[in-house]
Amino acid sequence: MHRTLASSAVAAVAALASAQSPLTTTFIGGNGGANGGVVYFDLQLSVGISIGALDCNFVSAAGSVGAVDLLTCPTTHTGNETNAAAWTLRGSAPVASQNPTFTPTHAVLATPVTLLPGSYGIALRNSALLGHAFTNGTGSNQVYGNADLVLTAGAAQNVPFVGAPSLPRVWNGRIYYGVLPGYATGGYQYGSGCYRKVRSFYEFFSAGTLFDLANSSLSLLNSGGSYVVLPGLTTFVPPSANAVNLGLTDDSQTTITLAGTFSFPGGSTSTLNVCSNGFISPVANGTSFAPGVAAFLAGATRWASWHDYVPNATHNVMFEQVNNVAYVTWNAVPEIGFPGSACTFQFQFDRTTGNVHLVYQGMSQLAGSHLVGYTPGGGALDPGTVDISASLPGTITLSAVDSQALAVASQRPVIGTTANITTSNIKPGTILGANILSFVQHDPGISAAPFGMPGCFQYVGLDATHAFLTGGSSTNGFGLAIPSSPAFAGANVFTQSFAFSPGVNVLGVESSNGLALHLGLN
Length: 522
Fold this sequence. Notes:
The chain is mainly β. It is 5% helix and 46% strand. The protein has 3 helices and 37 strands.
């Protein structure tokens, strides 16, 4: 039974309704600055937030292009407007085409900006062709807030960090943000530990997002115990007159017999099970029309371009074998709910090499989600979605085994209690580890490659160290006593774990993610 398009739309609207609303100032304008100028305001955060996008009001010519940089300084912008050294660039939001003045121009930050609880000065600096619209402050129009954050306007300069600022000035715009997870139950984890190994890869395209793999290809090269994923090494081979129509229907599957044995990481087979919804497995693997990461990783081995396809008598899945290659082609197969749509792509299974190639032609994208990738299944570790088009023409190297990276987590730190900081995924053979505690956060992290730890990062300052013996255990708990004085409430403490694991790199040390702890009263 297919979920209807109407029910999909209802679910999408419900998800948007439950999302965090943006914080809005005003868009009435009344004044404005020179192109390339800057506006300032302060933010006070009671929670950690991740800023993903901005709406801005510009006075520059409609259609102008450029970017808005978001910079921060500690506590407040006041007194720092002419001190360029006080400011740190945190992110940039490209503007592809400016909307007319008094109309919000939406700009998505290339990388979301994470701010922990506390007070910040904010500077929004325009590139050369963009000029901010703002409103003169009156004392009664300068504060905007909700339970998460309070924005206090503000000042402006025509040349960033040069000359006396004009004030008070109210930035016209919206801040789109989400509350960081973890503060209610422990801490906010940022960055990642090094040397995590995964056997799977995938990209998940949620409904309504652009499927950007049309007219592209990728190749999975069998290295024996795993795959190396490269840009496509083969081209599309149109089904010949000898190709067999598999006669698949909506949510169906069938078995094809190969002319010989096909070897893949972890096994081999002389048959393949083909599902109408765009995935192939060595054995029967269900006919689900709804791509899902959990089902993808838990099921059988799967090569997937998983989507809700509806083959028919004219546009079906075709199969033929030429020499040592088996070709399975979705031949202009429609999507659910759109009989005139057409998706054409092809899996190529090379029995000589054990390589698998996925080649796309035209792909309509009118309905539902897609999942593209490979997994050995059976409860494989979730590698997280990867942007395939951005990752290739590089490589995606998979492992023969799944292995979690070193990780650190904590109970919620409350004044006057002891928070248990736990280091997990300690490798066998590791004898010694350490927790580093600091009031300094490095996000993004500092590369540890120069110290013989390629792929590892330092996420905290080196203020205090708690060393521990593992005793052969894969986890270690450390009790952090939180002072009882209310003066410590609201402080942010950062921690990271290290483990001395011989053989992981030249130094024999690996690192965990970073963990931000916000000390609370209760």
